[in-house]
Amino acid sequence: MSLSAYLIYFVILLVLPLWANMRVRNTYKKYSQIENSSMMTGAQVARKILDENGLYHVKIEEVNGMLSDHYDPRSKVVRLSSQNYHGHSQAAAAVAAHEVGHAIQDAQEYAFLRFRHALVPVANLGSNMSFFLILAGMLLELANLFLVGIIFMAAAVLFQLVTLPVEFDASNRAMNQLVATGVIRSNEERETKKVLNAAALTYVAAAVVALLELLRFVLMFVAMNNEE
């Protein structure tokens, strides 16, 4: 790989995640200062959508941290950061609805969500072990060990790729539910989509970076074999 290609690669590797993170934070900050028309808190939005879908058993809990919102499929709990749990903003409604979207996916046994759950142990192992195996393969000039590291990394990358349809589907469900339940009005749909799309960018950026890293090591592996 030429010097210019390496520079482009590292610029993408460093700049893309930073840009995506800045985009989501700026968008969230902007729309967290605008109240939603229903004046419902994020917790109330989540409860309403859950109940409308018959998910009365799914609990809602408050957690610390900024944008630490998530759905726990094991405990069947939607956890919302304090600002979104108590906030009446458009951003709070969008984030809460998105996390409930995951709860609906879980209840309906959405295929990609099930696949992602199944990949978690392998992906964690791949994330923790791949670089050590690749580095050891390079230093010891053991192509087979290098290849095992690449396979482990590929498992982690696959997890990142499967995450994309899961997140986009949750956002689509969120929009549909917010409109259907009357939480937002038609003139708020555009702003809500901006919040959801900005959040999705972080997953896209992570997937692109993971793919580039995998490609780089595959090319290095090919070059190593050609030298033998």
UniProtKB/TrEMBL annotation:
This chain belongs to the protein called Zn-dependent protease
- PANTHER family, A to Z: MEMBRANE PROTEASE YUGP-RELATED
Q: Which domain of life is it from?
A: Bacteria
> Which is an annotated Pfam family here?
Zn_peptidase_2
According to the UniProt entry, the coiled-coil residues are none
* Membrane spanning stretches: 6-24, 118-139, 145-166, 195-223
Q: Respond yes or no to whether keyword S-adenosyl-L-methionine is given for this record.
A: no
Which keywords, in A-to-Z order, does the entry hold? Answer: Membrane, Transmembrane, Transmembrane helix
